[in-house]
Amino acid sequence: MYDAPNLGAKVEQKTNKIEANGVQVYYGDTHAIKDVSVAIESNTVTAFIGPSGCGKSTFLRCLNRMNDTIDICRIEGDIRLDGEDIYDKRVDPVQLRAKVGMVFQKPNPFPKSIYDNIAYGPRIHGLAKSKADLDEIVEKSLRRGAIWNEVKDRLHEPGTGLSGGQQQRLCIARAIATEPEVLLMDEPCSALDPIATAQVEELIDELRAQYSVVIVTHSMQQAARVSQKTAFFHLGHLVEYDNTSTIFTNPRDERTESYITGRIG
Amino acid sequence: MTDATSSGGATPRHSSSLLTQDARTLKRNAAESRFRAYGLSAVVIAMLALVFLLGSILHNGSSAFRQTFITLDVYLDPAKLDKKGTGNAEEIRKVTTFGYAPLIAASFEKLFEEEGIGVEGISAKKAGDLISKEGAADLRRFVHEDTTRVGETVSFSFLASGRIDGFFKGRVTMESAERDSNVSPAQLMLAEQLKEAGHLKTSWNWGFLTMADASENRPEAAGLGVAILGSFYMMIVVLVLSLPIGVAASIYLEEFAPKNWITDIIEVNISNLAAVPSIVFGILGLAIFINFAGLPQSAPIVGGLVLTLMTLPTIIIATRASLKAVPPSIRDAALGVGASKMQAVFHHVLPLAAPGILTGTIIGLAQALGETAPLLLIGMVAFVREFPAAPPEGFFDPASALPVQVYNWTQRADPAFVERASGAIIVLLVFLLIMNAIAIVLRRRFERRW
Predict the structure, then answer these.
(1) Residue range(s) in chain B whose domain bears CATH number 1.10.3720.10
(2) Of B343, B448, B329, which Cα lies nearest the Cα of A171?
(3) Which residues from B are below 8 Å from A71, CB to CB?
(4) Which CATH class is domain B225-446?
(5) What is the value of pTM for the model shown?
(6) Domains of chain A
(7) Which pLDDT belongs to residue B80?
(8) Where does the pLDDT of residue A134 fall: very low under 50, low under 70, confident under 90, or very high at 90 and above?
(9) CB spacing of B338 vs A98 below 8 angstroms
(10) Fewer CB atoms near the end CB (10 Å): N or C, chain A?
(11) Dihedral angle over CA of A18, A21, A22, A27, nearest 10
(12) Region for B33 from its dihedrals, namely left if φ exceeds 0, alpha if ψ lies in -120 to 50, beta otherwise
């Protein structure tokens, strides 16, 4: 398959945060991901695009082992985070998920207060030594999640009472409260209106300074707007992976071209 | 679908007026109104049956909460109670119940002399039969509590005998008394005179809720105390055992156990267990807890264990259903921030499932509270006069249970037990009502939206 072009001239001094080699995923008898190899760079937004059912969400969930919760799911190949095999027997998925946070398609705040939503991760990972520490983490995360100003006066009201866009930003804030190194986002804007989407996209761009962000999206405009690298998936294959500008202006594979011009998908 | 295909031909169905219904529409509407009529009549029949049931129970049973009492001034004669005149409490305690009967007769005698009450042919001794056989025993207990009162005259309220009580509740009439060996019309006349003189009155009967069961020939003294306490002890055992075991089993089966044919079989069997006749659980309890484990018969602990076995499937089914109803996105969210599976379940899924679990548990408990058949097999049908001790020893003492008490009383010959049995049913229904109300309140309180 296609190799990640981290030797391109425009690429700055970036290291590969996650390297996947020859990943195969099976759901029972279904071969969902076929031999995918990809290198995800640090401080970069990487977009996964492709038609529905092409395996992009499945592949995303392999990166923090969320597929472990599905009994019939089987994964082969090699995925390394900072050079360490995340499917090694010694790896506890709980520790992995603290490093690789995730935001889901549907905003899913816990039915608790806004404060407790954010504080839950730091609490279970023991990141805060005192109440003051925790307050600080909550405020910092909400600020980075670009929602602080909207909720600072009602931290103890339920998170489920927020609007959809606010809920999703709350979920993003919750994901970054545990200080992850990589943030996986599975169609984070699919349930949001254009204004909330713009806010979340702006936020994603800001997050790039500190994290590797991997975003699955159905919207090609979104991929073009927020990502630096784009991977196009089709029928379980990784068809093409390159700089976003290259994918959208000069795709090499005709399937990619067909998809981005709207002929398939 | 069928409409669409059948109208595919050249039939001029669509050209007809909208103002007239075609045959097909008429038929469909008729079917719908028939179905509505069936449903409505079913509801009406059910409501009528319920009203009839509650009406008859209340009509028969409410009188059990009122009882006829006869108040007499009793001279606690030292000549009878303390023959040696020492005032020694031990000596006084030796006097049997029979020794107290003459005191009651004496107070009637005094009443006849002072107030001019009396009916031809009724001696003071015979008048003593107006008072329950329990009366002398009550008086004896009263003296035992404070033996220094011997020599005083006390105003004491006695239970009237079952027949006299029945007379004022309309169960016994002059005509029926003619044919009754237990009561004579003359005694009834005397009772009426006593009532006019203010010595006899019908009032609220706490004893029905607090006293122990009484024998066949003194229905007026029979109470639900031991049965209520026994049922309460059993409910404690059931709650303490079935809630943690049931919830833990459901969490394991629903969230942790691998999905394979073994867990499938277990799931099917749990559903089937909920449908097993309760008497089978009784036999199981008899074999395991009494014959094999050697636990005492008639004890609330055994009853509680048997009822726990019965309640567990209900709780497990309810808990699994409410765990299933928690959206998977909540589990994903918890796992996504790095919670372990156990943390995700206990911090997020379980609190959301709590209202359903609580409702299931209380419904299971209510079911267990009303269960009779298994208790008959483990000996809880025995006639128990002694109150069980306080827990934990009390769990091993013989006790009765509310539904068994109802069953027991319906078996007895004296018609006075009809009102007692209905009264016990009212008490049982009140308990069930309270438990269901608690379930509703808890549900409202803990219900959260997501």
Answers:
(1) 225-446
(2) B329
(3) 258-259
(4) mainly alpha
(5) 0.81
(6) 16-260 (3.40.50.300)
(7) 80
(8) very high
(9) yes
(10) N
(11) -20
(12) alpha
